[in-house]
Here is the input.
Amino acid sequence: MDLQSYLLLSATLFIIGVVGVIARRNAIIVFMSIELMLNSVNLSLVAFSAFLGDVTGQMLVFFAMTVAAAEAAVGLAIIIALFRNKQTINLEDINILKW
Here is the structure.
């Protein structure tokens, strides 16, 4: 496969993630859409790294995946805490920053 195929797949995944963030109000779906966008960027980095014959992009993906794992743990903990307090994960019903 050539570079354009990987970039087209990455752009498609990113667009699906953006639509998921904009269209959905469920916190879990929004969280999964953000992870999908992050993975599409990782796919682009690996594709460019393989195309250029350099391992720098692959190292960046390794660090990005490490940060994403920590972000997933913290994000899910926040979602669970919100569910325990509000009994919902609908983002329109959660207004804890308002007085």
Notes: The chain has a mean pLDDT of 90.
